[in-house]
Design goal:
Layout: E1 4-9, H1 17-30, E2 35-39, H2 47-50, H3 61-65, E3 76-77, E4 84-87, H4 100-111, E5 116-120, H5 127-133, E6 138-143, H6 147-162, E7 169-175, H7 177-182, H8 188-195, E8 198-204, H9 207-214, H10 226-238, H11 254-262
Parallel strand pairs: 1-5, 1-6, 2-4, 2-5, 6-7, 7-8
Antiparallel strand pairs: 3-4
Helix pairs in contact: 1-10, 4-5
């Protein structure tokens, strides 16, 4: 079966797009798929650091495209999952050194071998963005619940649709339920109304995610982290499963504390 290429993008930088890419790629590999993640942020690569593979880089994406190495030589096998690979970005070149046709050709080759090709798109809407979206059959947009991030996401949705990437799905990152409840942060319904897209998942703000990222281990490996549970459900939906979203409501009641003590998660039976 031919694989699928998915681009993970955002309008605004710093919303957690690269961390999302690492966790989605890892999660799909944990489900038994053969996955390659590609960092297309040429000149400012970070995906290798998030995955803890920065010391294993010999060749990069540009080397593979310019035939300075075989495609397999540019792939770095993940330390934890043998079916997960990274193609890192070049650090000493700029985004104009490759074009959409070259990246599309490379992804079509990868689709013959991998179930999923996941592209980490650079922030912004310049050449790097055009390169990254060109091979994709699907797009996932990452935003945070902030007005500036939502505004930039709306702009990117228009560009994706102009490139015939219709119906991109949205991940809302760094959600703080307490702030949402007080009305200090946009909630899911507000964002859906503004952007008119389907929500793929919501990821809570989580200190364990920060720790995991700094350690170079995607947080989805940490089954106790709230963000890990959210990413696991996002990955299941990407893979075609119909699962409810993680319940991000603040746990304040006595029964919530009892359930925590007994190891029962509200999200197992909540459809929030």
């Amino acid at each position: 079966m031919k694989g699928k290429t998915i681009v993970i993008t955002s309008g605004k930088g710093g919303v957690g797009k690269t961390t999302t890419t690492a966790n989605i790629g890892t999660g799909l590999a944990m489900r038994g798929h053969k996955v390659v993640v590609i960092d297309t942020d040429i000149g400012l690569r970070n995906l290798d650091v998030v995955m803890g593979l920065e010391n294993r880089i010999v060749y990069d994406l540009v080397d593979a495209i310019e035939d300075r190495c075989k495609l397999h030589q540019a792939m770095i096998r993940d330390k934890h999952l043998p079916e997960l690979y990274l193609i890192p970005a070049a650090q000493t070149r700029d985004k104009n050194c490759i074009n959409p046709e070259q990246l599309t050709g490379l992804c079509r080759k990868l689709e013959q071998e991998f179930d999923y090709v996941i592209i980490d798109c650079p922030a912004g809407i310049e050449q790097g963005f055009k390169n990254a979206i060109s091979p994709a059959q699907e797009a996932i947009l990452v935003t945070t619940p902030e007005v500036s991030a939502i505004r930039d996401a709306d702009r990117v949705i228009g560009l994706l649709e102009a490139a015939e990437l219709y119906r991109p799905r949205l991940i809302i990152n760094r959600v703080r339920p307490g702030m949402v409840k007080r009305g200090d942060m946009l909630d899911k319904d507000d964002i859906v109304e503004l952007l008119a897209v389907d929500v793929l998942g919501m990821v809570p703000a989580d200190d364990r995610l920060i720790t995991a990222t700094n350690q170079g281990v995607p947080v989805i490996h940490d089954k106790r982290a709230p963000s890990s549970m959210a990413f696991s459900r996002i990955v299941a939906r990407i893979d075609g499963d119909d699962v409810p979203m993680l319940d991000l409501e603040a746990k304040t009641g006595l029964m919530d504390k009892v359930r925590d003590l007994m190891g029962i998660s509200r999200s197992e039976y909540s459809h929030a």
